[in-house]
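Support request, please re-run this one:
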Amino acid sequence: MLKTNSSALYEEMMLVVRAFECEEEDIEHYFSCSGGKFFNSVGYMGGFYDFEEEYKAENDLEFKRLAKRSVKLALYKTLSRFKGDLHWGALTGIRPTKLAYTEIAGGGDFEKLFEKMCVAPENTALVKKILEVQKGIYGKGGCDFYVSLPFCPTKCEYCSFITAPIEKTRAFVEDYVKCLVKEIENVKPLLKNLRSIYVGGGTPFVLDNVHLTPIYAAINGVFDGKCEYTVEAGRPDVFTSEKLALAKEYGVNRICVNPQSFNDSTLEKIGRKHTAAQTVAAYESAKKFGFDINVDLIAGLADESADDFRYSLERTIELDPANITVHTLSLKAGAKLKENVKKLNVEGIAEMIALSREKLTAAGYEPYYLYRQKYQAGGFENVGWAKPGKACVYNIDVMEETGDNIAVGANAITKRYFGDEERIERCAAPKDVPTYIRKIDKIISDRLKLFED
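Re-run finished. Output below.
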């Protein structure tokens, strides 16, 4: 139990406490500031550890930001004495690259900041490489367009998306498509300087062509065919040549094949209804249409060993896709996995992540975006890797938040970016499909209000 005299900083400190998995242990903290210095005293395991740090803040916002760093670092340095180091040190945010950009924009040196916050050198090097790869893509403004299709064949044990098996939601598909088309047509005036389109899920290819066609047609009515256009087709067992041909016809140039593992026993354990052989077949089928293809893997699934993950990684590299995304298993609210597991202790997870970095680099891939999530195994991260020139614009834009993101569909979150103020305002649609359908007119109205001058 953490006790502190600074309630305003409590949640920031709890992020560090949770990272060390010691929420139930007794921790005391005292914070003060005077004479241009922060003072932190942390009581743990029968001892007190004192820290003082000079600071310079030009305004209240900067003061709060520096105070948060100060308390987190003091807590981290204390707990790491007993628990060992964390790979991301005292950094707790989901966007390390965004922090790096912010530091650079303020005239600072993010590498020095990361060193101060005890980030492992290899992670600092990873962020530095990502910033290099993002040059020419990052910070261009404009907007990106997201279309949500929250339907799946089945729900995987690790998944927290608001989806249900298609057999339970099929009755809503017809009305959902009509509402989605209405939304897409409505946002046309907002899609200025469109950089990318992303049709995500769920598993979009679980829908039949009769429903995908009006969605593609509506999308084609709001863009000129010149930007990146991704469909996160999803699981291999829903791929057909007819669905791939339709996507190609409507201008899609990037497809995602998401097996998560190439081990059949793992796929069965996590609730998948396909095999590794079907993944290869789906990939080869998509390749014939000339798509750039992304393949997703998850490190830490269903008691897999480092050798199991190595096998999936090597099989993926053999396919030679344009992009490979390596996720670290995470406990997510709403997922079946979280109902059965309270903490993730994945044996060999560090070796898995090290393998991914080593083998993907050797195969000619470059890291181009990353993000972190709460309760990830080993405190690691998710990283997108791409062949040179094949980085996904949408993934970079949505993670770095440097432009508007217009999003339609259930559980879609539209973001308006106010560049002069470095501020973002959001407008979220209901998560479940029936409520989305019922409130479609209000959803459209709320989005228009968000973009009123």
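Residues 60-83 form the longest helix (24 residues). The mean pLDDT is 92.
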